[in-house]
Design a protein that fits this description.
Layout lengths: L10 E4 L5 E4 L2 E7 L3 H12 L2 E5 L2 E5 L8 E4 L8 E7 L3 H10 L3 E9 L2 E7 L5 E7 L1
């Protein structure tokens, strides 16, 4: 099945010269914490986000017609407090390799979960970014 251009998961844009570019969209965010119940209560109350337990995480539905959804989790180890966004890619390992070639480093190699595969890398400045490929 071919998706209509407006529903395509890959966004189109143009560079400075007007050439068509394909970009990788930001599709999810994650908030890490030590006290998951307290963090869930805080963000639920602050932004009126709808929360739903899902295994070790709590899924966040922002209830907005635009933007992305996310989740809150307590890893039980470092890092305890963090925020991260996930970029959708077609090949998680290839993008980790590309990040490393550009001076980044892999923090979490590809991990398969029931809904897809994710990984984390650090950019040259130390910021953590997630990669995501849905099944």
């Amino acid at each position: 099945m071919i998706l209509p251009r407006t529903l395509s998961p890959v966004l189109e844009s143009r560079n400075y010269f007007g050439e068509m570019l394909m970009s990788q969209p930001v599709v999810h965010f994650e908030i890490g914490c030590r006290d998951q119940a307290k963090t869930v209560a805080f963000f639920s109350e602050l932004f009126n986000w709808k929360m739903q337990a899902a295994g070790p995480a709590t899924m966040i539905n922002t209830g907005a017609s635009s933007g992305i959804h996310g989740h809150i989790t307590g890893l039980g180890h470092e890092p305890h407090q963090y925020t991260i966004f996930y970029v959708e890619v077609d090949d998680v390992q290839a993008y980790l390799d590309k990040a490393e070639a550009l001076g980044g480093r892999t923090l979490v190699p590809p991990v398969e979960i029931p809904t897809g595969t994710f990984a984390w890398f650090a950019d040259p400045g130390g910021n953590t970014i997630g990669l995501w490929k849905a099944k």
